[in-house]
Amino acid sequence: MDSKLTRSDSSLNALNGYAKRRDGYALMRDCNASARLTAQHYLWKDLLGYLVHPDIPTRSADLKVADVATGNGIWLHDLASHAIPSAEFHGFDISLDQVGHRSWLPANIHMHTWNVFEEPPPQFCQYFDIVHVRLITVVIKNNDPKPVLANLTKLLKPGGFLQWDEVDTISCFVKAVPGGSAEKLDQLNSQLKGRDTWKYQMANIMRQNQYSEVSLFNYEYDLSMARFWNDIYVSTWKEFAKNVLKTPEQSNELEIEAMAEVREGASIMTPKLVWVAKKHT
Ligand SMILES: C[S@@+](CC[C@H](N)C(=O)[O-])C[C@H]1O[C@@H](n2cnc3c(N)ncnc32)[C@H](O)[C@@H]1O
Asked: Which of 102, 104, 137, 148 has CA atoms 20 to 30 A from the CA of 11?
């Protein structure tokens, strides 16, 4: 495969090819990938200042929360550990390879295997007060979030809330100190960038698909946090490069050169998007 592939062109096709061969996931589920999810969770929490947006009610004694594409379940664990004992927390993912053993899960957390493109399990239709999903850009097919949104909506009770957290894969950019060079980091970042224009239409898509009170919140980290986030995105790229690009020598060289620029003062800067929407009653 051509080492100059970017995610915005041919590598998306490579990604789709990969999807057909495996379960559709372009990143990894090994210990490094899981550790990255854990680390980035705390960076997200620090940046947003919440797990569940304050506009979403969470105080009901029989609160039921779903976290779809839960990964290693770190968001759900964090939320459940601060919740009233009667609340229920359900994680769903196409693979539970990253989740702790079921016998060690807290009593209020339940994990389920579910492909978000399939009908939700009937017992969970209209079951949840809150459905949360974070970082499923690589899961969305054909730049169209509607099939996923439709299935997430089925999980929600009328009047329930959807919170969807994403990275802005179009507006992400590389910042360097004045006079610094970031050519290689820019090249690396261009392989992660997408044409996920659905994110710019998402609020309207939600309004047209059973939601009211739709809000989009934007977040950007400042330069004092840039290195922490940069290393998350270089790690994400390494998973993508290994799984999809499959050009180990070129990728290794690019990583070494890009990280040299990082040490001299350069960083991938990736804004965050959070939609909060209420399902029609
Ligand atoms: C980048 S991880 C995000 C994990 C978690 N939401 C977080 O923020 O820590 C994306 C997750 O989507 C899951 N996934 C991929 N394809 C899926 C599908 N078709 N249905 C459900 N989950 C899927 C992957 O297994 C992975 O755990």
From this structure: 148
Pocket of ligand 1 (CB under 6 A): 24-25, 27, 37, 41, 69-71, 74-75, 93-95, 115-117, 134-136, 139
- Do 168 and 271 form a contact (C-beta atoms < 8 A)? yes
* 117 domain-assigned: yes
Angle at 165 between CA 101 and CA 96, to 5 degrees: 20
92 in any annotated domain:
yes
Q: Copy the structure tokens of residue 188.
A: 């690396």
- Domain count along the chain: 1
CATH code at position 53: 3.40.50.150
Kindly state whether residue 89 falls inside one of the protein's structural domains.
yes
In the prediction, which pLDDT does 24 show?
67
Is residue 5 in a domain? no
Q: Is the pLDDT assigned to residue 70 strictly greater than 80?
A: yes
Range of the domain at 78: 10-279
Mean pLDDT of the chain: 91
Tokens describing residue 239: 């998973």
Determine the distance separating the centroid of ligand 1 and the alpha carbon of 243, expressed in angstroms: 15
Neighbours of 223 (CB within 10 A): 11
Please state, as a whole number, how many other Cβ atoms lie within 10 Å of the Cβ of residue 208: 11
